[in-house]
Amino acid sequence: MKPITLTVAGLHSFREKQTVDFGSLCEGGVFGIFGPTGSGKSSILDAMTLALYGKVERASNNTHGILNHAENLLYVSFTFELENAKGAKRYTIERSFKRQDELKLKSSVSRIIEVGEESVVLADKIGEVNQCVQDLLGLTIDDFTRAVVLPQGKFAEFLSLKGADRRQMLQRLFNLEQYGDKLNKKLKNKLTTAKSELNEVAAEQAGLGDASTEAIKSAEQELKNAEILLEKRQNEVNKIDADFEKSKSIWQWQLEKSELLKKSVEIEQKKPYILHLEQTVKNAETAALILPYLEEYESAKQALDKATIRYQSLQNQLKTKKQENEAKATNYHHARQEKTEKLPYYVTKKQQLTDAKVIQEKAIVLEGEANGLQAKLNSLQSLVREKQKIIEAITASITDDTEKQRDRREKLSKLTVTAEVRDELQKANQLKQTILFSKSNINEQKKELENSQIQLEQLEKILNSQNEVLNQAKHRMEVLFLKNASKYEAVCDSERDSEKLIAFAEAKLSMLKQKLEDNRKMNLAIQLADKLETGEPCPVCGSTHHPNPVSSLEDHGDEIAAQIEKLSNDITIVRELKQEFSTLKLKLEQISGGLIGEYPGEMNAPIQAKKTVSDDEFEDVDGKLQALVVEQKSLQQDYLKLQEMGRKVIQDLRASLKQVNQLEQTKEINTKTFNELTSRVLNLQEKTKEQYLHWKQSFPQLDFETIESKLEDISKNDKLAQSLSVEIENSTTLLEQKEQEKQKHQHESNELERQIVEVNSTLKSKLEALSEAREKLLREIGDNNIPQLLVETEQMIKQLEDNESRAYEAWQKVQGECQKLENETHAALQAFQDGKSRSEKATSKWAERLESTSFLQSSDVMESVLSKHEQEELGSQIERYWDRHKQVQTDLQKVNDLLKGEELTQEKWDEIQRVRTEMKEMLNQAVEAKGAAVNALQVLLEKHERFNELEKRRNELEQSVEQFNKLQSVFKGNSFVEFIAEEQLVQVSLDATERLGILTRQRYAVEVDSQGGFIMRDDANGGVRRPVTTLSGGETFLTSLALALSLSAQIQLRGEYPLQFFFLDEGFGTLDADLLDTVVSALEKLHSKQLAVGVISHVQELRARLPKRLIVEPAEPSGRGTLVRLETL
Fold first, then answer.
1. Which of 19, 115, 147, 288 could bridge to 90 as Cys pair (CB 3.0-4.6 Å)?
2. Could you tell me the pLDDT band of residue 426, with boundaries at 50, 70 and 90?
């Protein structure tokens, strides 16, 4: 990491923006930052940490009180480079803060930019910027101020770090997190994941149930039996289907014949109606032939009537119109004569009135101009009077304002406060605000403490509630375990019953077999006895005497053989049931095992007395067998319910346990937080008490409670004085403005008086011209209204012209209408003559045609007429009827041929359908049974395969868990990272010993003790080892300097960026001249190692030795802020 530039403004004593060019400073390897005490040297390091981490370590709450008291804005910008083998990257961090109150600041801008050809903003929020810096550098602010930039009070801190703090710091400095916390976290996550997966695998195995090879064989046998039954049912259905199809055809033909007979009856019933339709169509065809003659006859008659009426009407209209024409001609000649006589008089009168109107309008204009000038004159005179009033008012106001300004100056002189009083009050108030802030912080911490206590109480309630939920889940598990145990006993009882039933049935089977054998022997004896002859030897005993031969008995052999066969089948079924009971018992054992594995407590089922069954119950083998079958199905259903309940209760228990564990962890964290807050509140209270005692000692003459009121009084006086100053300045400006305004109004008043003279002259000439125009009008027109006379004259002229025009137009219109009527009358006469001739011809032809038909009059013809569409509809209807009649007869013949005399009753057809439905249902049941057997086998095969996979995975996971446990034991307590850190620390101590030897002339060396801490070896006293706490101030400085330089030389930020600079801000004042010379010489040699070292001091001897210097000039009181400048030898 290499610094480039640092810009700061508003921080501590800095006011104006100042920029430090580290690029030039670092060229010499060692440079100094010099200035008097309090000039702001350490503020440069504060600006660097503020830019990088948003904090100033020596400030209260990291940012309180760091803003210059005369500024409201603080700005820092830091540009640096990170360089590795791949190249260099440059970054700029900018932060701005605004004043919130006397102490507190509020961040306004915070961003980090990667500088390049195109700059990129990497983050622009406070948290994101801080995280980005942490990611880039890999150092916290504590690491940075212990090993890179060492401000006052931090120099020897690393030397005395112990335990976890040193380990955590070394992890970050040497990028060892991957071997420490990160490695342990990764290992813990791996172990947790492996254990979780192992539990899941075991749970899944338990949930798979019985997936053994025997279970698969049993399922395969069930599938084979189902396939045999399905084949049998299919053959039966195929046979019944063939019979059904034949019967179905006969039944459908019978139904079809019945429908055809119904249709035949309906067709015969419609036959008379169809014959009537045929006659109607025939009449329509005859009527259609003579209809044109009838239509012509009617049309000619109507046309003649219309022509007669029109001709007579037009003759009457023509006579009336000729009389009207003569009257209109007379009116026109009268109007024309009147216009010729009167028009010249009215035209002359119109011209005279027009000339008089012009003169009258001119007089009106002159009168308006005169009135306007008179109004303007009155307005100007009024304005002159107003201007005089304004001038008088301004003069009075100027006098009054001058008196008020004198009073303000006297008040201002009384409000002045001395700088000494003001500074003392401000310092006292600043310290008081610090104390008040501490008290406020205590109150906030107390609130946090109360909230933490409330949270703990609430968490305790929630934890108790969740424990109750957990206990309920455990109780449900216990109940389920007892239910499972009860069902297990029932399965065991059923299994024992099946064993007893097998034994009893086998014994009964032996008896039946023996009985069958006895029956066979008896039959043989009877056969021999039947063949015995008196005197013939017996083939068995050889005796010739047969006193008591076996008589013939009823043969029961077939009956016994049937019983033997049935009993053998029953034994086979019972054996299968026994196997199913055994399988079910294993499944229930798995449920119990799963419950016991989940519940850490003890679960024992109560010992129940075994069910005793008398031998009499086994006498009825069939009844007992059916009872066992029912019991097996019932227990199977119970098992499925228990399995689902077990899955649910285990799931609930796991969820409750997880919740309780999380709550207990949260409670532990909250308890720790509560204890820390309690300790923090006590420390803050003690610190605040010390601050208050210090304030009382520093300002004994001031009252702690009234300090703000005094400052407020001064502030009010300052504001009042500022207000008075502004008022005095404003009143001075206002007086000048009023004087200017007075002169302006005086000038405007003079201008108005000049305008009055001009308006008076113009008004006089206008009045003279108006008087002349009025006299002329009086002579020519008198008092008459000229516009009214002009309108009346124009109306008379227009009336004469309109009368003539309207009379002429009316005459011409009537004359045209007469001509039109004469033409129409002539045409009507011709139409009448043509219509009469046409009517006579049509009447003759119609009478001739009517006689050739069966119709008596024209109305009969019209009634018989049908449209073409209607004829087609009736023809189509007739044709469809005969086609349907023919089709029904044909279909009847076909159905009779198909039936061949066979007949099927309704009862027989219903019986066939019922039998077929029952057989189909039995086939479906067989298909479902086969499907269920296939699915059961497939599920079992999948479970078997999955169980083998899970078993393999379980073995792998158990091995992984064992390995992770061993690694966790090895890495427990961060021992591994401590070992690496200690090795790294040994290398640092060796390099530091070499540097310390140069600085102390081989007197001291640094070693690492068995606890990983530093210990001094005093070679000047025979190599005696002593604690670092026994070193003097100068020795501590030299030792810390050697360690810090060695550490800085070996630091690789994030494991890849070398640290290229180092800052020291204390310690040189503790060295004598010779030792100071030695230290500076050692620092000057660092340039060859590419490490720039900056020292901050006020020691003049050190300033004289360093070629590159940054001079810090202190701020001026109530003036400019701190300035920086580069100085080179």
1. 115
2. confident
Counting the structural domains of the chain, the total is: 2
Which residues have C-beta within 8 Å of that of residue 1073, sequence separation ≥ 6?
1101
Taken in order 496, 498, 499, 501, is the CA torsion positive or negative? positive
Tens-place pLDDT, residues 522-543: 777 777 776 666 667 676 666 6
> Could you tell me the pLDDT band of residue 606, with boundaries at 50, 70 and 90?
very low
Identify whether 971 is part of a domain: no
Length of the chain: 1129
Give, in order, the Cα–Cα distances in Å from 807 to each of 323, 337, 485, 849.
16, 12, 132, 63
What is the share, in percent, of the chain residues with pLDDT greater than 70?
88
Tell whether the model's pLDDT for residue 1026 goes beyond 50: yes
**Which alpha helices (DSSP H) does 542-620 contain, by range?**
557-598
Strand partners, 105: 99
Query: Rounded to the nearest 5 degrees, what angle is found at the Cα of 417, between the Cα atoms of 414 and 418?
Result: 130
| pLDDT 10s digits, 456-488 | 888 888 888 888 888 888 888 888 888 888 888
Other CB atoms within a 10 A radius of the CB of residue 215 amount to: 20
Residue 410's CB is within 10 A of a number of other CB atoms, namely 9
Distance between CA atoms of residues 80 and 91, nearest Å: 6
Q: How confident is the model at residue 500 (pLDDT cuts 50, 70, 90)?
A: confident
Q: What is the pLDDT of residue 992?
A: 84
Would you state the structure tokens that stand for residue 626, as one six-digit string?
């059916």
* Contact present, 571 and 446 (Cβ < 8 Å): no
Which pLDDT tens digit goes with each residue over 343-374? 777 777 777 777 777 777 777 787 787 788 78
Examine the fold and report which residue of 640, 674, 708 is the final residue of a domain before the chain moves on.
Answer: 674
Band the pLDDT of 87: cuts 50, 70, 90: confident
- The verdict on residue 13 lying in a domain is yes
Among the candidates 674, 693, 722, a domain finishes at 674
User: What single DSSP character describes residue 429?
Assistant: H
Sign of CA dihedral 394, 400, 402, 405: negative
Q: Letter for the amino acid at 837?
A: S
Q: In CATH, what number is assigned to the domain containing residue 75?
A: 3.40.50.300
CA 1024 to chain centre: 71
Do 547 and 541 form a contact (C-beta atoms < 8 A)? no
Following DSSP, what letter does each residue of 638-675 receive, concatenated? HHHHHHHHHHHHHHHHHHHHHHHHHHHHHHHHHHHHHH
- Write the CA distances from 194 to 141, 206, 596, 953, integer angstroms: 38, 18, 22, 11
Q: What CA–CA distance (Å, rounded) separates 432 from 65? A: 13
The pLDDT > 90 percentage for the chain reads 6
Q: Could you tell me if residue 1068 is inside a domain?
A: yes
Exposed/middle/buried for residue 106 (C-beta within 10 Å: 0-12, 13-18, 19+) = exposed
Alpha-carbon Rg for the chain in angstroms? 66
Angle subtended by helix axes 621-698 and 557-598, to nearest 10: 10
- The single-letter code of the amino acid at 588 is L
Q: What pLDDT score was predicted for residue 680?
A: 80
The one-character DSSP state at 203 is H
Which pLDDT does position 165 carry in this prediction?
67
Phi-psi group of 40: left, alpha or beta (phi > 0 → left; psi -120 to 50 → alpha; rest → beta): left
Residue 1076 and residue 1102 in contact, taking contact as beta carbons nearer than 8 Å: yes
Q: Give the span between the Cα atoms of 510 and 506, in whole angstroms.
A: 6
Domain CATH code at residue 499: 1.10.287
pLDDT in tens, 927-957: 888 888 888 888 878 877 877 888 788 888 8
Q: Look at residue 514 in the predicted model and tell me its pLDDT.
A: 84
Cβ atoms < 10 Å from Cβ of 213: 8
CA-to-CA distance for 531 and 797, rounded, in angstroms? 174
Residue 211 falls inside a structural domain: no
User: Whole domain around residue 568: which residue ranges?
Assistant: 421-532+555-604+614-674
Give ∠ CA 808-814-815 in degrees, rounded to 5. 85
